[in-house]
Amino acid sequence: MLSLRSLLSQSIRKKKKKNNKIKHRNKLRRKCTSKKQNPIEEEEEIEEGFSLKSSSRSNSHGVQPLGNLYLNPGSVNSRNTGLGNLQILSDELLLDILALLGGTHLGILATVSKSFYVFANHEPLWRNLVLENLKGGFLFNGSWKSTYIFGFYKSFDDVKDDFGLSCLRVRDFYSDYLFQSWLCANLELKPEWLERDNIVRRRGISVEDFVSGFEESNKPVLLEGCLDNWPAIENWDRDYLVKLCGDLRFSVGPVEMKLEDYFRYSDRVREERPLYLFDPKFAEKVPRLGSEYEVPVYFREDLFGLLGNERPDYRWIIVGPAGSGSSFHIDPNSTSAWNAVIKGSKKWVLFPPDVVPPGVHPSPDGAEVACPVSIIEWFMNFYGATKTWKKKPIECICKAGEVIFVPNGWWHLVINLEESIAITQNYVSRRNLLNVLDFLQRPNASELVSGTRDRVNLYEKFKNTFEAFFPGTIDQLVKKAEEKKAKEKAPSFWDSVLDSNAGAFKFSL
User: Which residue stretches belong to region Disordered (predicted)?
Assistant: First the structure.
């Protein structure tokens, strides 16, 4: 086993590389009644109106928020007594150290004390071990630890789910970090998080109206009735997709899985950040899937298509359970996007390019974005602040059969309200062509460009190819953009009158 000094040094080096994440962990305060020995397990209502999902499991190992310790005079935090000299480490740093261990060493460490038992059984540790070692070749058994054990030790036939393993309840163990991880995995979305619906909705508008009203002005819109003729709307359910795709594997986070195995996982999982099926090659893997939907008429000018097979990734099938989704991000390569829900529903929160969402910290060059580790955590800690903002976010619930247009540069967060299946595509039109070209020629473009193997030469390839098909168009777009910018800066008639009057007044003095 590695020495403590070696583990610490490796963990510190590892943390220095985690510039893309800042974990905002606010302490949870919760009133406990003296009548209940473990009120967290028995109550379904949490302070501030939070409620647990009806299918939520009791708090793992009896971990309680740190605030409960201060409400129990005379109690001693067994977290500290069981860690010995390591109690001075934060929970996050301690878990980073344990993440350097393998399954066998974690199992041995869990026998040292009750505290190490709790930390060594932290589910994300076992999730990482499964994904790193078993890749996508696993059958989820209700918990990541039992999945790991069953994956490596087939003789454990009685390990049917996480209740097949002993689950020690530890008294007087207080940790905000561990408790919030469990809480975020089991909280229902508060109704007030879903109430605001201020997006513009349109049905049956012309392409010209879409371009002038939304694409040129770079504003989101929700379009209804665009998918009525898609075979996917009728066909794409679990049974159809599993039968059609068979043993083909699709991208799920860092691994690839069969659809049948992914649905097994999504049915049983209860975690803070569920794995999300997000595959950019689905139409190449299963051509029939690509033939059962068509690009809505509003988005058919896709200039990256001129590059043929050399274009960056641009279309994805998205499948995920309730609670899965994407935390705040801006779509790649300064492209615009559309997202069509085929089954289920999604909650969207969008901020314009000049408004950084609360709790989100992009690096100056835009190469990295630090934000809360989970979507639920962002809602818990930051959503309320947007109520008082002058520029409030655009929000909506996008249901099956609806399409949302996401303009280039807009920050957006998406969470599935139920099991959902969707198609999304990123595209370049003449309205955002100059933005894309500017993005592709940034000094650090090799770090920013995504979805292609040739990040360095994409700008030259795309520009040269476009000019070959549409000579002189870029110069025309640049001239038009400069005229528009000058017009926006020019004073109005009344401003001119006021300025001239002010000058005359000063001269008379």
Answer: 13-46
Tell the residue number behind the tokens 């028995």, with chain if given: 42
State pLDDT tens for residues 409-431: 999 999 999 999 999 999 999 99
Exposed e or buried b for every residue in 18-55, given b needs 16+ CB within 10 A?
eeeeeebbeebebebeeeeeeebeeeeebeeebbbeee
Token pair belonging to 205? 């508008």
pLDDT at site 509: 43
- Provide the edge-to-edge strand list for the sheet that holds 325-329: 325-329, 411-416, 345-351, 394-399
Position 27 scores a pLDDT of 38
- Distance, CA of 271 to chain centre: 14
Q: Distance between CA 225 and CA 201 in Å, rounded? A: 11
**pTM for this one?**
0.84
One-character DSSP codes across 47-109: GGGEEB-TTPPPPGGG-B-HHHHHTSTT---HHHHHHGGGGGS-HHHHHHHHTTS-HHHHHHH
Sheet with 336-343, edge to edge strand ranges: 201-203, 221-224, 402-406, 336-343, 420-427, 315-320, 277-279, 249-252, 255-258
Amino acid code (one letter) for 220: P
Q: Which residues, 6 or more positions from 501, have their beta carbon under 8 angstroms from its beta carbon? A: none
Q: What distance in Å separates the CA atoms of residue 268 and residue 254, rounded to the nearest whole number?
A: 19
Contact 410, 352 (CB under 8 A): yes
pLDDT at 240: 97
Q: Up-side HSE of residue 380: CA atoms within 13 Å toward CB?
A: 27
Q: Compute the distance between CA of residue 336 and CA of residue 330 in angstroms, rounded to an integer.
A: 10
**335, 436 Cβ separation under 8 angstroms:** yes
Which residues are within 8 A (CB) of 343 and not within 5 positions of it... i.e. 6 or more apart?
A: 236, 237, 400, 419, 420, 421
For 197, list phi and psi in degrees, rounded to 5: -140, 90
pLDDT value of position 379: 95
Rounded to 5 degrees, what angle do the CA atoms 176, 179, 181 make?
A: 105
Judge contact between 236 and 273, C-beta under 8 A.
no
Which pairing describes strands 221-224 and 201-203: parallel, antiparallel, or unpaired?
A: parallel
Across the chain, mean pLDDT equals 85
How far, in Å, CA of 316 to CA of 339, rounded?
Answer: 10
Please give the residue that has the higher pLDDT: either 264 or 41.
Answer: 264
Type of residue found at 195: E
Q: What is the pLDDT of residues 13-67, one digit of tens each?
A: 554 444 444 444 443 333 333 333 344 333 344 545 567 776 555 666 889 999 8
Looking at residue 190, the DSSP 8-state letter turns out to be: P
Nearest to 252 by CA among 222, 295, 282: 282
CB within 8 Å of 42: residues ≥ 6 apart: 36
Across 264-274, average pLDDT: 93
